Each structure stands twice: as structure tokens, then as C-alpha cells.
Amino acid sequence: MYRITVIPGDGIGPEIVKAAVQVVEATGVPVAWEEVAAGQCAIPQFGQPVPPQALDSIRKNKVALKGPMTNIVGAGFPSPNITLRVELDLYANLRLARTIDGAQSPFADVDLVVVRENTEDVYVGREQMVGDDAAIAIKFITKKGCRRVLRFAFDYAVREKRRKVTVVLKANILKLTDGMFLREAREIAKEYPQIAFEETNVDAQCMDLVRKPRNYDVLVMPNLYGDIVADLAGGLVGSVGLCPGGNFGNGISVFEPAHGSAPKYQGLNKVNPTAMILSAAFMLNHLGEKAAGEKISRAVETVISEAKAVTYDLGGTASTTQMTEAIIQAMG
């Protein structure tokens, strides 16, 4: 029996998390869900978006399935997603972007993995004012932070039989911060001679991704670039609504969809649950339940390719619950 923390989150989160839980349960894998609140929804009860109870639950269970959480702008609270990643030291974010037959995409046969450092860089929001007329964002990168996410990317490439790792930076300009990341990448790449290694500037990488995405495999980069490139990868396969993701630390993993909480669609039962359901499949694969994870992925692909029970963004008229039911039926 697996004991897994489940965080419904905000906006459309509870609807799509419910869908993912139903699909996981339909596989027959024994799971005891421990539900905790985090996000904007937690503030009225706990006075903060990420209460200690949520962190304690994840630390205890080691695995969590999390819906999207709303970043409360201008309310004095830090981003709940960043808080989770920093407090739990989830140093690697991994986003999968793969084309699915039936989903509108300008490309076929794209299969990208974006590995993003998750706890450093300007993305963590360390800023300060300089007088009244200037502001500074601090780009903070450590050798430890570089090495562990780079090794994570190479280990993933070996484990999943991927062919190449590309490090994405702007080291020609940011010679100290990105330069450190690049130097560590070159050193670690020597330990993995079976994996091809290349390095590129982030601007050139973005251009190449929209010209010839099939030339790339595993991409690894600092935090801010990863946030941008991961969404670009989602666009290449049709939508971030098709992309699962996971955050990984030392013995702790939190799985989540690539998209946000979309509060304007809350309660309408119309959003695409694919990314959340594929994140649950990703979670099962991580737990060693690969047959169950692959069963879910195949069912999702079948439903999307048949286009009979898909949501509006995929050209259909099905509700969230109807598409979820179709995926469960496709699992047999």
C-alpha cells in the first residue's frame, strides 16, 4: 500500500486532481491518499498558503500528487510553488513534452525532457530596491546546486535510455553564474561517455527548438531559463495542458501538471485533465509501477487520438468528467 499526499490546490486543481486520483485507483495499484490543503485555498484556515501540515505530510509520505496553486500577487505571500520547492529542497524539476496523435501540433514525433534547476537563480525572487528608482534581482547559483541538477539530468538520460543531454545557458554574457553551471556540466559530462553532450545559448536554443525540435532530447538549465523553455516545449506538442511534470529532491518527489490554476474555469467541469493524469502516470512510473503508469499513458493517447470524448481545447465537447471516464474505459 502506497501512502501518498494529495494536494487539490486552487482553481481547476480540485477537479483535475480528482480525475487523476480516479484514474490511479482504476489501475488497481493500492494507494492510501492523505489530503492536505496548500495554495490560496489554505490561507483562510491556516493564515498562509503552505502550512506546516502540508510540508510535514510530504516529508512523511515522500511522494505527493499536487494540483496547480494560485500565486497570490500583491498579497504579501511568497509563491506557494516556490515555497514548496525550497522548503522540501526539490532541486530538480522535470517536464515531459511529447506529441500525441490527435492533439494539434506543428510537429510530429517530438519527445523532449526539460530538466530545470528548481531552488536557485533569479526565479526564487531575491530582489531589493536601490533607492527609489532602481531595483536589483539577485542571480544566485552555487556549485552544489549546479552539480546535483546536472547529475540528475545525466542519470535520468542513462536510466531512460535517452541519447543526448544539452545544457542551455547564457554563459557568454553571464560568465560567473552561467559560467559556473557550464563548467560543472562539462566536468560531469565526462562521467557519462555513453551520453552525447552539447552546450548552447538559451536564445539560440529557443530558435532551434521551433525549427528542429526532433534534434533534441534531454535539456538541462538553470531555473529561469527552464521555466521559459519548458513552456516552449509544451507549445511544440500542442499545449502545456498535455505535459506532465515532477519535482525531485533527496528521497522526496512531488508530481504536478505543467499548467496553472486557471481560476476563470473553476467549477465549470470543462478543462482538459490530461497533464494532471499523465503526472499521476509519471508518479506511478517513479514508484516502480511501470505497467500501471504505461497503461494510463496509452489510454490517454487512445482517447485523444480517437477524439470522441475530448475537451474543448482538443476540438471536442466532452466535460472533464466525461474525458476522465473515457480514459478509464480505455484502460479496460
Features:
332 residues; alpha/beta; Isopropylmalate Dehydrogenase; 2 domains; 10-stranded mixed β-sheet; two-stranded antiparallel sheet; 11 helices; 39% helix; globular
Description:
The two termini are 22 Å apart. The strands form two sheets. The protein has a ten-stranded mixed beta sheet with strand order 2-1-3-12-11-4-5-10-8-9, sandwiched between helices. It has a two-stranded antiparallel sheet with strand order 6-7. It is built from eleven helices and twelve strands. It is globular. β8, α6 and β9 (196-201) form a beta-alpha-beta unit. The relative contact order is 0.17. The protein folds into two domains: 1-91 and 244-332, Isopropylmalate Dehydrogenase; 106-236, Isopropylmalate Dehydrogenase (3-Layer(aba) Sandwich), CATH 3.40.718. The chain has helices spanning 13-26, 43-46, 52-61, 80-87, 143-159, 177-189, 202-211, 223-236, 274-286, 290-306, 320-330, and strands spanning 2-7, 31-35, 63-66, 92-98, 111-117, 127-130, 134-137, 164-169, 196-201, 218-221, 244-248, 253-257. It has 332 residues and is of the alpha/beta class. The model has no long low-confidence stretch (mean pLDDT 95).
Topology of helices and strands:
Layout: E1 2-7, H1 13-26, E2 31-35, H2 43-46, H3 52-61, E3 63-66, H4 80-87, E4 92-98, E5 111-117, E6 127-130, E7 134-137, H5 143-159, E8 164-169, H6 177-189, E9 196-201, H7 202-211, E10 218-221, H8 223-236, E11 244-248, E12 253-257, H9 274-286, H10 290-306, H11 320-330
Parallel strand pairs: 1-2, 1-3, 3-12, 5-10, 8-9, 8-10
Antiparallel strand pairs: 4-5, 4-11, 6-7, 11-12
Helix pairs in contact: 1-9, 1-11, 5-6, 7-8, 9-10, 10-11
